[in-house]
Amino acid sequence: MIDIALRLPRRGFVLEVALQLPARGVSALFGPSGCGKTTVLRALAGLERAAGHVRLGDETWQDDARGLFVPTHRRALGYVIQEAALFPHLSVQRNLDYGLKRIAPALRRVPLDQVVALLGISALMDRRPATLSGGERQRVAIARALATSPRLLLMDEPLAALDAERKAEVLPYIEGLQRELGLPIVYVSHALDEVARLADQLVLLRAGRVLAQGPVPEMLARLDLPLPLGEDAGVVLQGVVGERDAQWQLARLDVDEDPQGGGACGLWARDHGLPLGRRVRLRVLARDVSLTRAPQTGTSIGNQLRATVEAIADDSHPALALVRVRVGKATPLVARLTRRSAHALQLVPGQEVWAQVKTVALME
């Protein structure tokens, strides 16, 4: 567990956060520019001297009540920023060696060979940073941060300087790192698509305070939070590959239900060739969900699920509304409807409807 309680006056507001983040997976700090995301990260690293405490498992990096403050260079962390900040006069190999030399051999917990393989940079070792693409440079920067065998990896908008193509290149490598290494990552971003794909926990910050915190599927399904959803409105779901239909090149993805019991919700999507039983993350956008009062026949939409209306909220345009429904015991979906359609369906919380899901995106 990462236990944080920090207070730091800033221009315009006072940063005051108390967080407990899981010791595995990706915890995303999300919010508008200037809300304190990077300040939290810098205080975690010891680069900003906030008041309070910082504990990583059984290790304490700061505890003002005991007069304890561990300087940055003695904290077992890696730090990746927007710019790769590699040494231009050194090869990739020597950049990694620089990070490796910061940690004694007896304390090396992360095998550098494994990191190089996971990040796909083995063919780049003799090249200098100027000859690399933006995505390659950022992968090398991540590898250098991991070469120090950190117990915690801090990432401050590491993809912000990349175009969409380079970002799409790097994202799968970050996913692979957190899956294979089991290293906790605190990830700062203002891009909701990155958070939806990478993060397990979402912390929403506003003017230096924690507005809400929770698992990403739960947070993205909430309609009461000031998340800038827009076209990204929708839900993230966890599940497994339950069936494959070779004739039609489709796969049934069984979404996790309430751990206390209840069957899974099955959604058909394009077959990506994944084996049965493989854990997957899905995204269902609100624009791809429609609601009806009864199951439909003669329709091209194959995913039709009995659901219950839970909440109705304003969307970004006054003609539109967002409707959260629950499928089964615990699976949330969000539908974007015109207000005229919501009125015609006479939608109210507690009402039974049928959710039609046109498209399911497999996030991998």
How large is the radius of gyration? 23 Å
CATH architecture of the largest domain: 3-Layer(aba) Sandwich
CATH topology of the largest domain: Rossmann fold
Per DSSP, the total helix count is: 8
Whole-number count of domains: 2
Which parts are unreliable, with pLDDT below 50 for 5 consecutive residues or more?
Answer: none
The count of strands amounts to: 21
- In terms of quaternary structure, the protein is single chain
CATH superfamily annotation of the largest domain: P-loop containing nucleotide triphosphate hydrolases
Mean pLDDT: 87
Structural class: alpha+beta
| Biggest sheet features | 6 strands, mixed
Using the alpha-carbon principal axes, give the shape: globular
Write the H/E string, N to C. EEEHEEEEHHHEHEHEEHEEEEEEEEHEE
What fraction of residues sit in β-strands?
35-45%
Distance between the termini: 27 Å
CATH top level class name of the largest domain: Alpha Beta
Please bin the fraction of helical residues. 10-25%
How would you write the strand order of the largest sheet? 7-8-9-3-10-11
Write up this protein.
The protein has 364 residues and is an alpha+beta fold. It folds into two domains: 2-220, Rossmann fold (3-Layer(aba) Sandwich); 232-362, OB fold (Dihydrolipoamide Acetyltransferase, E2P) (Beta Barrel). Helix content is 20%, strand content 37%. The protein has eight helices and 21 strands. It has helices at 37-45, 92-100, 112-118, 134-146, 164-181, 192-198, 216-220, 339-344; strands spanning 2-10, 13-21, 26-30, 51-56, 59-63, 68-69, 77-80, 152-156, 185-189, 201-206, 209-215, 234-245, 250-255, 265-270, 279-285, 289-292, 303-314, 320-327, 331-338, 352-357, 361-362. The strands form four sheets. The protein has a six-stranded mixed β-sheet, with helices on both faces. It has a five-stranded antiparallel β-sheet with strand order 2-1-4-5-6, with helices on one face. Strands 14-13-12-15-21 form a five-stranded antiparallel β-sheet. Helix 2 (92-100) runs parallel beside helix 4 and helix 4 (134-146) packs parallel to helix 5 (164-181). The radius of gyration is 23 Å and the shape is globular. The model has no long low-confidence stretch (mean pLDDT 87).
